[in-house]
Amino acid sequence: MKTVRFAPLIVLAACALPPPVPVAARLSHQALKVEMSDGSACRAVLQGAAPWAGELPDCGLHYVVQPSVAGNPLRLAFDAIIAALQAGNLVAPMADISLVDGAGKTRAFASPVALDN
Q1: pTM of structure
Q2: Could you tell me the residue ranges of all domains in the chain?
Q3: Tens of pLDDT along 71-86?
């Protein structure tokens, strides 16, 4: 019976939780995976050539993936070697990822994930 007494408080507490926000974005040649602050994840299948844009309805986000043209010269040389070996799908593409929520707030991520110094 004590649980019933606290039920309205539990419902109010659940309503007060902020909506989840993107905390990470991972990119492959086939898909974009977005991890949310509540532990959930959304995935978009990427088709055709970059740049890619679309919706992640499960997360309420719009995404834009724009390939990076400027970058580390060593990475560019590495990409050229990988492409010559026809193994391009083994390495995450270099790109800037923008995620826009329903309120219009944009969060930016980079692919591949930068290493901390």
Answers
A1: 0.73
A2: 21-111
A3: 678 878 888 888 888 8
